[in-house]
Design a protein that fits this description.
Number of helices: 8
Strand content: 15-25%
Oligomer: single chain
Structural class: alpha/beta
Order of helices and strands: HHEEEHEEEHEHEHEHEHE
Helix content: 25-40%
Largest sheet: 5 strands, mixed
C-alpha cells in the first residue's frame, strides 16, 4: 500500500480568492445553512458553473480543492465531483489520506469520544447545520476506510465509531443489501472492531430513499437512525 501513497501537499490558499462567496440555494434546500457553507469556506466559480469545496487537513492546511459541477454538460463530461483544475494545475489530493471536516470537528470528537463516518462533504455540512459545535461527523469521501484514515481515527482516542454511509439498497431482503452490508463489514468494520466499539446506521424503517445519506432527510430522521443504530459484535 505504502508504495502507491501520494503524500498530502499544501496548496497556497490565495488561489481561493478568485472565487465568489456565493452560496447556492440548491444546497440550502438540502439542509445546509449558509452559515455552515461559510464555515467550510464553500465558494462558487461563475465561469465553471460549479461549487468550490476546499479540503483542509486536521491542522487547517489547504490540501485539495474539489468542485461540484452544476451544469448538465459538465456533469456529463467530468462527473458530479472532480478536482479543481486551473490552467494546467490540478488541485487534487489522495482523498483516503484525510478525513473531511476533522479540522472543524476535532474538539467535539475528542469531547464525546466518538466519531461518525459519512461518505460526502455535504453530509458533514448537513450535520454542522444540525449540531454546530457538537458535530462529530467526518467524511471518508467514498465508502472505503483506508489504513491512513483508520490510524487518524485511532489516534483521536474515540471509543465508538458510527458508520453512516449512503443507503445503497432498495429493500432489506435484496441481494444488493447483502452486498452492501458485506462491503461495509470488509472495508470498514473489520479494520476497526478490534480497537473500538463499532455501530452502523441501517435504515430498517424505510426512512431514507435509495442512495440517500442518513443526513439527507433532516435532523429527526438522523436522530431516529442513531437511536436505532446496530452495534457490531467485536471480532475477537
Amino acid at each position: 500500500n505504502s508504495t502507491s501513497e501520494k503524500l498530502l501537499v499544501e496548496y497556497n490558499d490565495s488561489i481561493l480568492k478568485i472565487f465568489q462567496q456565493y452560496y447556492t440555494e440548491l444546497w440550502n434546500q438540502e439542509g445546509i445553512s449558509f452559515d455552515s457553507m461559510k464555515k467550510y469556506n464553500i465558494l462558487y466559480s461563475v465561469w465553471q458553473h460549479s461549487i468550490i469545496i476546499p479540503h483542509y487537513s486536521i491542522d487547517n492546511k489547504l490540501i485539495g480543492i474539489r468542485t461540484r459541477n452544476l451544469g448538465d454538460w459538465e456533469i456529463e463530461f467530468f462527473g458530479k465531483y472532480a478536482p479543481l483544475k486551473i490552467g494546467n494545475i490540478f488541485y487534487s489530493h489522495p482523498l483516503g489520506q484525510n478525513l473531511y471536516g476533522l479540522n472543524h470537528n476535532l474538539n467535539a470528537i475528542k469531547r464525546k469520544r466518538k466519531i461518525m463516518l459519512v461518505e460526502s462533504e455535504k453530509s458533514v455540512m448537513q450535520t454542522d447545520t444540525m449540531f454546530d459545535d457538537d458535530n462529530f461527523t467526518v467524511a471518508l469521501c467514498g465508502s472505503n476506510l483506508t489504513d491512513f484514515q483508520k490510524n487518524i481515527i485511532l489516534s483521536l482516542g474515540v471509543r465508538e465509531v458510527i458508520i453512516g454511509l449512503d443507503k445503497q439498497y432498495e429493500s432489506l431482503d435484496s441481494e444488493e443489501c447483502k452486498k452492501w452490508a458485506n462491503h461495509i463489514k470488509e472495508k470498514i468494520i473489520d479494520k476497526l472492531s478490534a480497537y473500538v466499539t463499532v455501530s452502523v446506521l441501517w435504515d430498517t424503517s424505510n426512512l431514507l430513499g435509495y442512495k440517500d445519506s442518513p443526513t439527507d432527510k433532516g435532523k429527526e430522521v438522523l436522530l431516529e437512525l442513531m437511536n436505532n443504530k446496530i452495534y457490531v459484535p467485536t471480532n475477537e
